Each structure stands twice: as C-alpha cells, then as structure tokens.
Recover the amino acids of this structure.
C-alpha cells in the first residue's frame, strides 16, 4: 500500500514538504535489501531453467534419469549446514539483545563461551556446505562412471546444469562465509559479525530451499522410480 | 527559428515523399489484400499522429521560444487533458488493433479445402514435395536424410510412396486454389518469403510450421530466404510459378514419386557390380 | 512518509571523508561513483566507435556492392553481428546505467556515493573484462561470430558459420561476464536509490532521470538472467554437445549428433531478455530527456505523476510482450493474439510520455540550447520509431514487414538514434558538472545538425525499402527482380550520409577532449537547474559530493517559474518561502 500511496502523492504541493522523508524505504540494512533483490534474480534464473526443463521434457528423446541416492545425504548435509548457520545467528542475536550494541563490554565468562559456540557453529556450517558440494561432485562422478555423460540425454544435461549452477551459487556463499571468518579472526565488533552472519544465514536458507525445489523438479520425471519415502526409510532403519 | 522551419520541412517532406517515392509495395499476387488494408489503416492513423505531434511541437517552439522577459507557465498537471489524450490514443490503438486481429485470425485459420505442399529448406536451396493421389504426405525423419533420400522419407510408409519430389528450387502452383505450405528445415532457420504474396514464415529444424495463401496472379515470383541462415543467405533464392490448372498438372507429373526415385537408385546400385 | 521505523542509518562517515590520494586509487582502482561513471562512459564510447566503424564497412558493401574486395559475406555478417551486439549491450546499456546511472544517482538523490562502492568498482572491472573478451574475438581463428546479434541457434553454433571456432564462445563468455558486471552494478543502483536518499528526498521528488534509471535497472536485473540461461545452455550445446536448442540436423550433408532440442526455446529466452532490453535502454533516455526538456524550457515537467506511472507501467508491461519479435518464428500462432494486444497496450503509456514532453514545451520559455535541440530531435525521432512500432507490433502487419528494411529502420530510429540523441543531449548538459567547463557550442551545432538531419534522411526512406520487401541481412541483392533499380541508388545515398554522420561523431569526440581543457568555465550551475547535482559545494563535485553537510530536500525537482517567486527556478534544497503558489492554472478543478 505504501508504495502505491507514494506514487499517488503530489510532490509539487507545499504541504508535501512538511513530511520529512528519511530517504530510506526500509529499516533493514542495505545489505539485506540487496540480498533480497539478489534472491529475486536467482529465482528468475531458476524459474527459467525450470521452464526450459519442462519444455525439453515434452520432447520424445527425453529419458528419465534415476538420480543417485547420494543426493538424499547431500540434502541432509545442506540442511545441517543451514541449521548450523541459523544457530550461530540466534546466538549473535541474543548477544546483541543483552549487550548494548554501541559498546560491547568484554565481560568474561558466558559471552566468551557464547562466542566460541558461535564460531564453532559457523565452522560447522562451512564444513557441511563443503560436504554438500563434495557430495554433489561425487554424485556427478557416479553418474559419469555409469556412462551418463552430459550429452547422453537431456535429462542428464539438465541434472548437470542445474546442480552446477546451484553449486556455483553456494561457492559464492562460501566466499562470503570466508569473509565472515576473517572478520571473526581479526576480532571485529559483534555488530559487524552479526550483519555478515545474518546475510550468510538468509543466503543459506534460500539456497537450501532452492535446492529442495530443484531436487523435487529433477526427480519429477521418474514416475516414482526414485522413491523418496522408501529411501528415507532405508536410511532411517538402516537396511 | 531554423529548428521550426526544419521541423515543418521534415513533416512536409515526409508526406510528399510518401506519395511520390518510387518505393512502395510490390503488386499483390495473393488473397492477402486484407493485410495491405490493415497496413494502410495503420499507415494513415500513424501518419496523422506524426504530422499532428510534430507540427504542434514546431508551433510550440515557435510561439514559446525564449524572448527577453518571457516566463514559463507553472502547470504541474492537467488531469482532464491527460485523460482525454489517453482515451483518444486508446481509440486509435483499437482502430489499428481490431482489424489486425481479425485478419490474423484468417491468416492462421487454414480453409478446409486447402491442399498441402511441403517446402524443404536447407543451406542454401529450396525443395518441395507434393502429396500423391492419396492426398497425404508421407512421414519423415531428419535423421534418415542422405544423398539417396534427401527428404528423409520413411521407406516403409505407404503414404510416402506416391509423394512427388521437386528438387530444383522452382515451385509451381495453380491459380485460385488455396494452398497450405508446410515448412521444414534440415539444418538452420530459414524463412519462406515471397514479397508479392505478403505472407512469410520461418522454417525451423525439428518443427513443421505453416502458412496458407491463394495465388491470384499468373506469373513468376521470387522466393527469398528472410531469416539469416549463413554466409550464402542472400543467395538462397527460388521461384514460384503460378500456372493455370492444366499447365500446373503437366508440370507436376513430370516429377518422380518417391517410389520411382527409390527404384531408380536401387537399379543404379545393382548395376554397379555388373560394370 | 510511512517510514517511521528507526534503524541503522548510513552515516556520511561510513567511508572515508578524505578521498583517495594516490593517482592509482583516485583514477584507476577508484571506488568513487563519479570516476567509475567516467570509466564506464569512456569504455562504452570507445567500444561504440568500433561498432560505428563496423557500420561503415556494412554500409560500404550495401551502398556500393562489388566495389570493395576486402568485404566478403562472412566478414559482412561478422560486422552486422558485432555492430548490433556492441551498440545494444556494450554501448547503450553500459553508458545509460553504468555511465549516467553511476554519475547521476548519488548526486541527484543527495547521497555521498553508492551504497556498496567496492561492488561498484568490481562492476566496472568486470564490464571492462567483458569488453576485452569480446574485442579479442577479432583476433582469433575464424574471427568474431557472424550469427547475427540474436545468435539464433542452430546457425550460431554450426560449422560453416563465421566465428564457429572461437567467436561464438568468446561472445557467450563475454555476455556472461557482462551480466555478472551488470548484476553487481544494478543491485547497487537499486539499493542506493531505495536506501540512501537525502533527507526529504521522497521517491516522488526524485528527478525523472533517476526514475528511468531505477526502473530500467530493476528490469535489467530480472531480464538478464534469461540471456544468462540461454547463453550458458548454448555454451553447453557448443562445447559439450548437449541438445538444448539443437534438433536433429543435417548440416552440409553430414548428420550431427544433436537431437531433440528446440531452437524456439532459445528465441523465447533471448527475447524475454531482449524486449525488456529495449526499454532498459529507452527508459533512462525517457527520464533524462524529461529533465532536459523541463530545465531548458524553464517549466516543470508536465504531468510528473503520469510520467512516473508510465515509466513503471512500461517497465512492467515490457515483460509480457517479448514474443512480438517471434510472430513469424513458427511458434504457436495463437500467441499472436495475446502479444499483439499487450504490445499495442504498451503504446498508450508511451504515447502519454510523448504528449507530456510536447506539453511541457507548450507555454514554456524555451531556450534552444544544445541539450534542448537534442531533446527535440529525440522527440521527433522517437515519434517516428514509436509509430512504426505499431506496424510491427500489430501481428498481421508484421508478416510482410518482418525481416525487411522496415524493421531495420524502425529499431534504429527507436532504440538506436533516439537514445543516442539523448546521450548527446545529456553529455552537453552534464559535461559542465563533470569537468567544470562547457562544451564548444559551434562544434556542438555542427554535430547536432548533421546528426539530426542525417539520421532522418538515412532511416526515413529506409522504411520504404521495407515496404518494397527488401530483406535485411543480405550481403547483396543482385538479380532480385522485384527490387527496382532505384533502390540501389537509395542505398548508395544512405551509405554516403552514414559516412558523413560517422565523421561528425569524430568531431564530437574531439570536442569532448578539446573542451576539457579549453572550454568556457561553466560555474556550478550554468543552466540554472533545480536538481541536487547542480547544488554541490564544488564543481566538479569532490569525493563525498556534498562537503561537510548532507543536503536536505524541501521540494520536487521541477520548481521552475513558480508564481510569486522572482527567480525562475528554486533548487530542491531551498525551503519553501512565503508567497510561492504551487497552484497550476487547472489545478483548482481537482476535487481532492
């Protein structure tokens, strides 16, 4: 409503000068706004890929690909990674709520333990993300060793393309993660760390959601041959 | 001041040019006079708008050019005027769009009595295929194409046996009969375009596209490729010859059917070891 | 407005007050938006000169066939392709958003720099790399790609097409890098406009230039992914032998391994990017020309709100018209109905913009300065280009005209010449702010008259070649019987004019360099303009733009000739005084 309301205002009227606009559309950080915009771009990108997928699927030379079971494990890795980031972020948020943001007093005891716990969770998040990427590479290798090359048939091509583009985005996230790690290493203020951690966490959540959607898309054409439920049961029950 | 004169001269010159230039449509040779009509409607409406806007602008510049002591008006907006202009524009748009959509509907609705002929484009020649007496074209597969079977006809398909093959970039059609052209390409995009017929459509490898028309004039018309198809794009020409029905039939019967062609090739192949 | 939430503010001390000191950090690895803007503009103009030279070669062949032995068909198609791609993407998109966007956004909204200066710098360097990669294709085996700027498969990646070896690969790589560069820059522009406006600068008080750049950037961010996807898929097809866009093909007698792909899928992706791209170039031009007209006619822009709505409306609509480039592509013909309707609807907001420009002149106090001359030339050119667009958008009329010279004339008028005229007008207008000196007026007049009249003489008759049915992208027309002899005379005429216009651009470049040193001192506000960039403490503005205090905005950018005030302009950072009446002559008719 507010945007429409803005568009309707008459800027030439003297009255409109009494409202002093602070010049910002939203109260969140600019980084978060830019990241949200970036999500929109990635969404368009993968939506177009999805449309391409469906278009191509309709052609007669489409042979459904039975995806490697490994993907389930990879998905769990990515989810764990995302959860670790979330945990770290919750700690930082708590820290900020208890301590005045302007001057964080280096009080001994619990905050330091909290910091350690936070750093540990962030490291864990990174490790799981690496595990996810390595797992994806392994999945590629499995496919490759089965003779499923990138040009064997369109379903496989799409599998490689979509997983690769997703992994590239995650690698970009790893770069940001590395920068946060450096910030922590050099003892930046909690406020700065909070900002970059917040961005990392939302980015990871987004990539997790994106991956799950893409995963569902990739197994859609299998007509139940890739039986998610059966595999989950198998993993859980250990047989 | 010079600017005002130049603007007026541009308008006057453009109008005179439109009526006197030697460059205008080629004489129509198909049923698509309706396309020309919609085009003329658009031409007239846009011509009037162009003249009005530019002359008004020239007058505004002439009248309100800076003079010592002159001062502009203060007018943030004028809702009434803006609404009027929007409504008028919309009416103009509808006047152009409505006939366009009606004619488009005709363009894509092939009459039932239309006969089919296949146009095959490849870098950089045209070939054609008429259905035989059964009135049906045989099915094809691009992957079957080779020197013996340039159309890629499936050998076992009975519909294809009597298909008449025309392989010399010259297409004959009878006058006054609607024809549906099925367009196919074996390599890249092409576009079957005969200026006098007004119609055109891309040939897309992997797809069969179409358009239809009825020839209305006897004569020879050039086929051009209108979609960039490689270095010899501008040399990809062909010819459509519009005949009276008997002459057309005579021409058509000169061409071999797929079965005859296959037999001929087989005979040649079996002769080779004897030599 | 409704923004009452407190949050972290961007303090002016977020980046150093004292600017960079060494030459390298000041002019090369600069994070200052003004320097980056100039870097963008210089790179874009340089690469644009290459594209201009390519157009001369094309015109030489068309005007005087069989005369120049060094132009062969392969070369000709390479010139066509590179000319188109460079002009649309690497010149126009880059100069409007990277150049003007970078320079004007922070200055016009009262910010000290972009929100992410480092990202901004990266954006330029990625852009430069993309240009270098593209240029390198002139020096590799097989040369640049000759597939046409639309890069339609299968032709673009088939052996036999010029640039099959490396040209097409470098083109795709360059595009992908450009898209990354644009995304970095674009996120910056959008965030800056939303988050870093000066106190009092509501969205509706922004100059239309910023609005045009803002909406165009959002469109670019959402449209370029389509080109990205298409480009990556094509790269897969070319390098890995996949079949996204490649059906079974017999090329020159040989069966290729491709199967099942859809060439039309690429066209959809390409134009889903390509049509918004037209408006990515046009909207900044619309915005800038609105400001030029208003300032030099000493009158507020007529119907500001309508202008903003039209920009937003055009931006949104332009995402649902892409297939009007594909009426004869063989797509489902029923799409034609939908896309013809959406395309002609978009003409309404566009027409409103034209009316409002002309109505701004009406009862104005028109100073025929160079920016004003260019603006008027723009209106005329754009009217022609826009009206001919109604032919091509109206699906059935497109059937005879598509792929003829009518199309060439149309898009050159509407998205070649018209935006370029705005670029010229804008350069004459803002050059004094950028360098502190005015461009030479005599040279400017020669440049203007030759460019304006020349381009009209070149492209207006070209439409009629399209009526004849002369197909575009033809190397030669020998023995085409339906084309009258006189058409060749016209082609020669167009070529001669094109060469003259090209030569005059060199004069313009000379003027740019000469005036930088010898031009008349301009002072801080030579045009008596109201918008913030003319109110900076220094000219050219220093690092951080505003000196010690941030500007505060009290009014919109169009308070020209306000009744009750003696001066005919009131800058945006001047508070309201007694006696100002902001009632227009017809305002009293409004109820609310």
């Amino acid at each position: 409503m507010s945007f429409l309301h803005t568009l309707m205002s008459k800027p030439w009227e003297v009255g409109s000068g009494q409202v002093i606009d602070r010049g910002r559309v939203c109260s969140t950080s600019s980084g978060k706004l830019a990241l949200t915009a970036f999500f929109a771009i990635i969404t368009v990108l993968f939506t177009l890929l999805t449309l391409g997928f469906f278009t191509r699927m309709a052609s007669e030379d489409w042979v459904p690909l039975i995806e490697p079971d490994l993907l389930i494990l990879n998905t769990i890795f990515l989810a764990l990674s995302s959860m670790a980031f979330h945990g770290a972020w919750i700690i930082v948020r708590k820290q900020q709520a208890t301590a005045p943001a302007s001057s964080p007093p280096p009080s001994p005891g619990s905050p330091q333990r909290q910091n350690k716990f936070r750093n540990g969770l962030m490291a864990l998040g990174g490790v799981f993300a690496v595990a996810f990427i390595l797992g994806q590479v392994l999945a590629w290798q499995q496919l490759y060793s089965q003779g499923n090359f990138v040009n064997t048939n369109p379903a496989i091509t799409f599998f490689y393309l979509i997983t690769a583009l997703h992994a590239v985005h995650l690698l970009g996230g790893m770069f940001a993660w590395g920068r946060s790690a450096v910030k922590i290493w050099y003892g930046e203020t909690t406020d700065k760390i909070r900002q970059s951690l917040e961005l990392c966490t939302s980015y990871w959540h987004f990539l997790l959601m994106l991956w799950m959607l893409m995963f569902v898309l990739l197994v859609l054409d299998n007509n139940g041959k890739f039986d998610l439920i059966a595999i989950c049961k198998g993993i859980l029950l250990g047989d | 001041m010079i600017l005002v004169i130049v603007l007026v001269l541009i308008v006057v010159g453009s109008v005179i040019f439109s009526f006197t230039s030697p460059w205008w449509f080629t004489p129509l040779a198909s049923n698509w006079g309706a396309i020309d009509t919609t085009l003329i409607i658009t031409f007239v409406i846009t011509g009037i708008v162009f003249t009005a806007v530019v002359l008004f602008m020239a007058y505004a510049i002439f009248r309100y050019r800076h003079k010592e002591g002159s001062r502009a008006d203060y007018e943030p907006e004028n809702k009434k005027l803006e609404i009027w202009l929007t409504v008028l524009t919309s009416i103009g748009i509808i006047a152009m769009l409505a006939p366009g959509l009606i004619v488009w509907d005709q363009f894509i609705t092939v009459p039932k009595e239309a006969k089919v002929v296949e146009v095959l484009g490849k870098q950089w020649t045209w070939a054609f295929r008429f259905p035989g007496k059964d009135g049906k074209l045989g099915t094809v597969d691009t992957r079957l194409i080779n020197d013996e079977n340039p159309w890629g006809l499936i050998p076992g398909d009975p519909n294809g046996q009597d298909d008449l093959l025309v392989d010399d970039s010259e297409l004959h059609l009878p006058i006054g009969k609607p024809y549906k052209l099925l367009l196919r390409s074996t390599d890249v995009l092409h576009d079957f375009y005969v200026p006098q017929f007004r119609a055109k459509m891309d040939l897309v490898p992997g797809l069969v596209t179409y358009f239809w028309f009825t020839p209305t004039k006897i004569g020879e018309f050039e086929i051009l490729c209108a979609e960039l198809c490689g270095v010899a794009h501008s040399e990809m020409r062909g010819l459509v010859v519009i005949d009276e029905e008997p002459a057309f039939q005579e021409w058509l019967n000169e061409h071999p059917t797929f079965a005859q062609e296959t037999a001929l090739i087989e005979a040649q192949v079996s002769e080779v070891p004897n030599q | 407005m409704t923004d009452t939430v407190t949050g972290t503010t961007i303090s002016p001390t977020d980046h150093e007050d004292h600017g960079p000191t060494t030459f390298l950090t000041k002019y090369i690895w600069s994070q200052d938006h003004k320097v980056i803007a100039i870097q963008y503009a210089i790179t874009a103009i340089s690469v644009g000169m290459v594209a201009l030279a390519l157009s001369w070669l094309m015109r030489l062949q068309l005007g005087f066939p069989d005369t120049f032995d060094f132009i062969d068909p392969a070369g000709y198609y390479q010139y066509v392709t590179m000319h188109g791609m460079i002009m649309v993407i690497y010149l126009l998109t880059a100069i409007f958003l990277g150049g003007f966007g970078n320079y004007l956004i922070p200055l016009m909204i009262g910010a000290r720099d972009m929100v992410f200066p480092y990202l901004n710098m990266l954006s330029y360097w990625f852009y430069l790399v993309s240009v270098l990669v593209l240029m390198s294709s002139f020096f590799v085996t097989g040369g640049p790609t000759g597939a046409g700027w639309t890069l339609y498969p299968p032709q673009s990646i088939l052996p036999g097409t010029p640039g099959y070896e490396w040209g097409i690969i470098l083109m795709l790589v360059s595009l992908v890098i450009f898209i990354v560069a644009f995304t970095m820059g674009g996120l910056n522009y959008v965030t800056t406009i939303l988050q870093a406006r000066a106190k009092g600068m509501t969205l509706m008080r922004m100059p239309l230039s910023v609005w045009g750049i803002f909406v165009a950037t959002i469109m670019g961010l959402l449209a370029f992914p389509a080109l990205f996807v298409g480009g990556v898929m094509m790269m897969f097809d070319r390098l890995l032998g996949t079949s996204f866009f490649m059906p079974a093909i017999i090329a020159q007698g040989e069966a290729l391994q491709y199967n099942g792909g859809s060439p039309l899928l690429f066209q959809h992706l390409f134009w889903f990017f390509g049509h918004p791209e037209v408006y990515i170039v046009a909207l900044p031009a619309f915005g800038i020309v609105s400001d030029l007209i208003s300032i030099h006619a000493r009158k507020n822009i007529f119907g500001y709100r309508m202008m903003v709505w039209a920009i937003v409306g055009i931006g949104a609509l332009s995402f649902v018209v892409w297939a009007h480039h594909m009426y004869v592509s063989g797509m489902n013909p029923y799409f034609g109905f939908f896309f013809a309707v959406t395309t002609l609807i978009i003409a309404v907001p566009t027409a409103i913009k034209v009316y409002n420009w002309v109505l701004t002149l009406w009862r104005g106090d028109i100073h025929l300065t160079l920016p004003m001359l260019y603006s008027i030339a723009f209106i005329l050119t754009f009217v022609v280009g826009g009206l001919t667009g109604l032919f091509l958008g109206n699906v059935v009329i497109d059937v005879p005209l598509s792929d003829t010279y009518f199309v060439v004339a149309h898009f050159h008028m509407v998205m070649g010449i018209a935006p370029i005229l705005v670029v010229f007008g804008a350069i004459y207008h803002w050059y004094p702010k950028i360098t502190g000196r005015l461009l030479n007026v005599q040279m400017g007049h020669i440049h203007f008259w030759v460019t304006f009249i020349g381009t009209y003489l070149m492209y207006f008759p070209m439409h009629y070649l399209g009526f004849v049915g002369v197909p575009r992208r033809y190397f030669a027309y020998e023995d085409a019987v339906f084309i009258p002899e006189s058409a060749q005379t016209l082609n020669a005429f167009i070529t001669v004019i094109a060469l003259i216009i090209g030569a005059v651009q060199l004069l313009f470049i000379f003027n740019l360099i000469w005036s930088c040193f010898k031009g008349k001192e301009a002072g801080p506000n030579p045009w008596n303009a109201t918008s913030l960039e003319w109110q900076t403490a220094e000219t050219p503005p220093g690092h951080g733009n505003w000196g010690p205090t941030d500007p505060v905005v009290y009014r919109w950018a169009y308070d020209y000739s306000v009744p009750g005030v003696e001066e005919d302009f009131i800058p945006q950072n001047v508070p309201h005084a007694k006696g100002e009446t902001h009632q227009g002559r017809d305002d009293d008719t409004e109820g609310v």
About this structure: The CA atoms of residues 123 and 330 of chain C lie 38 Å apart. Chain C has a mean pLDDT of 91. The radius of gyration of chain C is 24 Å.
